[in-house]
Amino acid sequence: MPPPRRQRALSGQAREVTRIMNKRLSTDEVLTADDHLIQSWADLNALKQSSARTVITSAKGIMVRDSDGRDLIDGIGGLWCVNVGHGRTEIIDAIRAQLETLDFYSTFYNFTHPAAAMLAKRLAELAPGSLNKVYFANSGSVANDTAVRMLHHYNNRLGRPEKRKVLSRVGAYHGTTYLAIAMTTPSYSTGWSTAENIVHHLRSPHHWREGDGMTEAEFLDALMEDMRQSIERIGAENICAFIAEPIMGAGGVITAPDGYHRKAQAICRDYDIKYISDEVVTSFGRLGHWFASKDVFGIEPDIITTAKGLTSGYQPLSATIISDEIHEVISSPGGRFMHGVTYSGHPAAAAAGLANIALMERDQIPETVRTTGKTFESAMRSLADLDLVGEVRGSHFMIGMEFVKDRATKASFPDEVEIGLKVSRAAQKRGLIARPLGNSLILSPPLIFTPEIIAKTETILRESIEAVTREI
Ligand SMILES: Cc1ncc(COP(=O)(O)O)c(C=O)c1O
């Protein structure tokens, strides 16, 4: 290997990057530059007002700091992802060491590298049953697109190319690429277009909103009947997959009736339909286990997709983990895997994943969440005594609460009241970031929340909800 060249002084441009990293920009400077940035899922018109934007400049543990120097509790873990907390040197050092050794090489054609290979092996060990083969990409959306594309190819190889439709559900969130958004609940496509004739949405499994006077058991039967009838109508020979999040996340944290996933899987097996479990949020400790499908919900899916907590957000990385049986078909002689993204298994991302798993194992994070997550859940459920709160739902560190105008009738506030946004603003003023979602508020904090922080979060939310109640 040639001796390292002597480092030249940083160019003006590189000095500028360093200055930005060192947080020496004023809020105004950032917001002026930010006029060029398009935020995700945002009201772009509202964001023309700088006061509607928060500049986050640094983070450590469960806290983030804004550009005015205010420290805020990160009640949403970045975006359901910073599971081990911010600023963990174990992961940062692993990423740096990886970049110094091998900054980038692809896993295209016949190439591979140690970090991607070792992470694939670790995921195969952690995932349930025969889920032993892993395709890496950079987002949950692409992981889900990949799952469906693989199943289309699988069915093509089996000589049944018409078996390509997907069953999803009203309320689901599976991402924002063209196929993933088609699998997402239709309301997320308002004013936009989606891929047509490929996805059928089954009924939402939200008993509190959709139960219509039925007991939970009756509602479960109705949901399964809807699934069977939909399959009969569409024809099982035209359906490749059912995709479901163990707990719906961005649809408002919706937990299906007990036994839903087991029964849905049994129906899928009856009709030879593959079960894709979208664990982009529910894996890597959020519900107290590496993966929730088997350990929490008792099913062995044919494919699990994951992202977010896989690297705790330190690097963009997702995985589509498929069964040996699917792999056997798509790797049989006579075909080629015509799918790929440049950064599949990027060395830095794979190193982040390996370090994240090692850290979670060392600190027994999934095991700890079985206690602390339950404490968090009960603290959040205790807010259900407030008049504004219609339902608190979810599990462990994945909680949603829906605000109502009238608890008896469950009547919602009109959209223009922006009740979720009002409560989230009140909470941010008091030092907590919580995510508004229509009439609901979502909490998905780092999994290292202690009982003291949980109590503080509860107090802030109680005060915020009370303040908004007075205001409206
Ligand atoms: C359950 C679920 N699936 C898929 C996605 C899409 O992931 P990404 O935003 O990384 O594309 C998300 C994102 O929030 C998600 O919550």
Tell me the name of the CATH homologous superfamily of the largest domain: Type I PLP-dependent aspartate aminotransferase-like (Major domain)
Specify the CATH architecture of the largest domain.
3-Layer(aba) Sandwich
Distance between the termini: 69 Å
Reported for the largest beta sheet, the result is: 7 strands, mixed
Helix content: 25-40%
Classified by CATH, the class of the largest domain is Alpha Beta
Q: What proportion of the residues form beta strands (DSSP E)?
A: 15-25%
Number of helices: 16
Average pLDDT over all residues: 95
The counted number of beta strands is 15
Query: What is the molecular shape?
Result: globular
CATH topology of the largest domain: Aspartate Aminotransferase, domain 2
Q: Radius of gyration, rounded?
A: 23 Å
Major β-sheet strand ordering: 4-10-9-8-7-5-6
Q: How would you classify the quaternary structure? A: single chain
